[in-house]
Structures are given as C-alpha cells and as structure tokens.
Fold these 3 entries.
Entry 1:
Amino acid sequence: MPIYDLICTNGHRFEVMQPFTAELPACQACGAAARKIPSMFGIPGKAGLPPAHDRLPQTWRGTYGGNRDYIRELRASAEARARIEERHPELAGDRRPILAHEGSYETSPLRLGDTSLPARDHRSSDSHSHHHAPLPSTQRSSQPKG
C-alpha cells in the first residue's frame, strides 16, 4: 500500500497509508480537507548541480593548457548551469565580474564593487608565515622607487 504526504487547507502536514482508490482523509489535527503533496524520496547514486560560473577555471593554466576535450566539457557544464539558473534564478549567485581570483583572492574572489579585501588564507601556496604591517604615511613617500 502506498504512503501519501498530505497537507490541509490550514497548513498541517501528515502522512497516510491507504489504497490508491481510497478517498483522502480529513486532516488529523483540525478536520479540514486535505490534498496530496510531493513526497521526499531518495534516489541512489550521485546527483548535483553543475559548478557555478565562478567555480570554473578562470585561467589558461586551469584549462590544462587549452585542452579541447576539457574545454568542451567545461562549456557543456556551463551551458547546463545556465539552463538551470534560468528556471531557478535563486541559484545564480553573485554575477558581478571577477577582478582578481588568484593569490589572496583564491578562496574569495575580488568582484566589481567590493569595498573590503578578503581575509588572507595562510594555507594557500603563495602565502608566507608573517604579516607585513602597512607603512605609516610619512615613510611611504620616503621609500626609494624600484
């Protein structure tokens, strides 16, 4: 016998196990008329969204030197993501242009309109173990060029 998820006109949700041909019962909490709603279910395997635009490689090196097969896969993935975002705009995320995406911006890209710098990630390969304090304004002008 199938299990149905139901919701009443007052918003109460409940489940019922009954034959397909049986009439839907009234709400168990308030007695109002109920209707079927989509049930949650699981499908074994792997399902997921294609990566967002800003998660795709942004440099020539990221495409394995312009590997045509890899670029074809990236393009198909980007097109699939665009189709999904057309139907579900809430998945589009931040669409502002990325100005910097390497070094300290690797984990949090600098985007057009950003006013603050991201926190430096010391685990990235280009960082080192100490911080450089900014020079006072009087010392900046006296520093030699070069």
Note: The mean pLDDT is 77.
Entry 2:
Amino acid sequence: MSVFIRSFAPEDAGEAAAIWNRVVEDGVAFPQEEYLDEAGAIQFFTSQSFTAVAADEDTGELLGLYILHPNNIGRCGHIANASYAVRADRRGRGVGEALVRHSLKKAGELGFKLMQFNAVVAANAPALRLYEKLGFVRLGTIPGGFRMKDGHFEDIVLFYHTL
C-alpha cells in the first residue's frame, strides 16, 4: 500500500464522511456526536482552512483524512489545530503518521506558527505515541475532560508543536 495525500475534493465526500463518521461512532476520540451526510461533509470539509485525504495510490481508495483550521481567532489565530481520521481497517500502517506530517507542513505553508491539540484522549495510546514521536510537546492533562461513548470520563492531554 502506497499512500498519496492530496486536497479534499467534493467527489471524496461519501468516503470521507464514512471514515469521519466511524470515528464519531466509536466515541473515543472526536468530540462530535453528529454524523455527516454527503452534503454536510462537503460543507464541513470545504469550510476548513485545508482538508486533506490520504488515498491508496494503487486503488484510489480513501484511507484517511485530516482537517486543519485556526485553533482560535484574532491574536491567537496563528495557532493551528487539526483532527485526523484513519479508516478502521487501515490503522497501524503509517497512514496517520503521514497525515500528521503532511498537516504540519501544510500548516506552516498557510502561515501558522504553532499546532495545538486541545483534547487528545489519554486512552488513545497510539495517538499519544505518534505525537510524541513527531516532536509534539505535552502541555498537561485535564482530568475527566472527555466523555466517552459509554458515558465515563477520560482525561485529555494538550500538545503543541512549533512550525
């Protein structure tokens, strides 16, 4: 499997929504609780500063995606934020790492100075390992900051990376 990362296009909406919605359905990583339909996916993904999809170069299948946008407004608008989703059957194969690396480069190209993650669920060990591997700095932990799908609360970890 060879991964190619490119800009989101409206024709990606169905596959991209399915990948996104699976993460929402799992209820262990994204704060969103609402699912995207195809029209909603087009609106949501095109409203970001940048949305990328990772595709299998051989088959064209979407493997994952990320959204990139300001973490805040005004005087804090130079700080980016991103969310990543990898197809469940393709996790653990380097797709997420390729997406994070691409997002860091793209954020710099768009003029952002920092990347900040506000709510990495502490139980998401693969994400924690990846971010630390890529040089993100752990800022701290917010106890009980994320409500899991089953209703219990998990800590969230904050990270940043200079660009």
Note: Residues 95-109 form the longest helix (15 residues).
Entry 3:
Amino acid sequence: MANLPDIRLSVAPMMDWTDPACRYLLRLISTHTLLYTEMVPAQALWHAGPERFLAGHPAENPVALQLGGSKPKHIAHGARLGEQWGYDEINLNVGCPSDRVQSGRFGACLMKEPALVAELVTAMRESTDLPVTVKSRIGVDDHDDYEHLQAFVEAISAAGVDALIVHARKAWLKGLSPKQNREVPPLRYDRVEQLKADFPDLPMVVNGGIQSLAEAKDWLARVDGVMIGREAYHNPWLLAEADGEIFERPRESAPQREAVIRAYQEYIAERLEPGVPISRYTRHMIGLYQGLPGAKIWRRALSEGAARKGAGVEIIDQALEARSSAISRLADYAE
C-alpha cells in the first residue's frame, strides 16, 4: 500500500468551492489539514490539457485530487497526471448524486456497480504510486442495506484501495437535488462504525454533519479520520486550531485573522488578471469572521465591493475598515 497523507482531518471536495484559491486560503489557516480538489472529470483530462484542471500553488499541499469517471483508461490517465502535477493522493468520487454526474455514469450511481469500482481502483493503482482512495455514500436508492455496503467495501478492498471516505448518508438518484441529498437522507453513523469494525485494517474516514474540531476529536477514537465539508467553507476559521488539536503539531504562534487576510490579499494581487472579477477570490473569504462582532458588515462590504466593475484588492482594506468602524461604533454606544 502507498503511504497515505495524514488523514486525521480533511476538508471535503466541493464543486465550485474547493478551487485553488480556496485551498490556498485554507492552507494559510491550517498547515496540516488535508485538502481536496473539486471533482475533476477524468474524461475532460483525457480530451483536454491538464493545466485548466490541475494547476495550483505548491503551498496548497497536502492536496488530494478527486476524479470522477467510469472508464478505466480515463481514470488511469487522470491518476498519472495527478502524480505528475504534484498531488498527494488520488480519490475516486463514488458519492456525487447530481444528474449531470449520473449522465456520465459516475458518482454515487457507481455504488450499484462494485465490480466496476474495483476495476477503476485497480486501474488507478497500476498507473500511479500515489495512494488511491474512494469516497462513497452508505448506499443509493433502495440499495441501502448494510449487506450491499459491505459487499461494495469488500470489492474495493480486494482491489487494493488505500482508504475509504464514507459520507454517512445514502443518496437518492432521483427526486432530490444535490443540496437535498446533503441534508434530507438521515445520517447513519452506525453504518460507518460497523464498517470500521468489519474492516479494521482499512483506513476509514467519516464525513457528513461534523461541524467542529471537538466532534472530530471524538470521532478519532473510533475511525482513522474525519472529513468536514460545508462548515469548513462557511466558517473556515474552525481549522485555526487543527494543527495543535488534531495533528498535535502546534505552530509557534497561532494564526491571526488579519495576517491571513493580508497574505491572501497578496496572493490575489499576484494572480488577478484584467477582466477577471475579484469575487472569484474574495468569495472564499466571506466566512472568516463567522460568529464574531462585525461579521455581517465584513460580508456585506466584501460582497458589495467585489460587485463593483474593476474592483481590486483595495476592497479587502475597505471591508476591514468597515468592520473595524462598526465595532468601534458599537463600543462607543455601549459606553
């Protein structure tokens, strides 16, 4: 088996969210949390150049590349490219329930075809020395009994998968939107715990509904890793204590929000091209003050500033000033 990156805590692959800019920002907050790309269609890598899909910043690592597809040659090609482009792990998406993904015969619908998923895992393992992992649901539609899930894991385990990430909800392939599929099917954490008991030698990561480092630490007594999704995007500062709390490798000094913002501002300034809206970058910063005084002012100032034609990195200064001024006014009022 290939050497896995440290899987104790990771941020889930999220379409339209975990792009290179998002990953760079998250890396400024936590040094060791494992990050994932958005799902990259393996067919697109087969037919087009990899630059558009795989280019990132070396500072983002450790990063896993998530691929979607159902043709072994496409998946193998994508895995090879992932290794060439400096990724730390290759992950196969067997959990996305969207109609677009289903139409390409990949994502959650593949849970109905464990033999094919095993073939894809084999193709990936033969094409790269990187660890090969799978991200799945606990079932799809009426294929949701534990025996079906167990058979699925047996098949990919026999194919040599290095780790399994389990979103502890089943997926409905018809009738629910992707958003509803993240919320409506109930969480069945007991299925994940049973899988770990039945496959003790297979590294296993739980995903779904986990919203704090305290919850993550509790889970690490039962499984090998925890993956946090939307909460890590909407409230990225929850990762600020991860290096010490989860990885037991605290920084010499804890990250400071404004220092992170300034470092990210420099990153934007180096990359922002004429005609490209700055919101491509600043949208990832919206939640940086989540739960703190002035968070609403920060969000509004950043969003309204980014909507202005030709806006540049100065809008970040303006948003910081707007929040600071609002807090000062509140302090004066309290006195």
Note: The chain has two domains: 9-245, 257-334.
